[in-house]
Design a protein that fits this description.
6 strands; single chain; about 25% strand; Beta Polymerase, domain 2; 5 helices; alpha+beta; about 35% helix; 6-stranded mixed beta sheet
Amino acid sequence: MTEKARIVTKLAVRSLDKHLANDIRVIDIADITSIGDSFVIAHGNSTTQVKALADYLEKELKEKGIEPLRVEGYSSTSWILIDYGEVIVHVFYGEMRNFYDLERLWKDGEEIPVEQFLNGEETAKDETV
């Protein structure tokens, strides 16, 4: 995973965690595909929470100068995909996450413990890409 991808992943995980997303997972996909370096996957308990999680994430990363290349799914709010290039964030409504089961589909990727992005002395607020 590139340093830029690590920073974007850390900021995304911390935003989702701060806003009470459920079951945050990070999958390193750099060695198995060219579409990106990592997936960040989480879910909310309602479509309202899914939208709020995606909104907060976009706002907080934008404040760091990080803009998504594209965003999809706001119309349904059951699966919002936010593509930051090297990092692709998937925010699901719980039932949709179970249905699509991205963790199973991308099981050849390396799951990275989210604690690596939540713990540590460094603060994400000072990091830039």
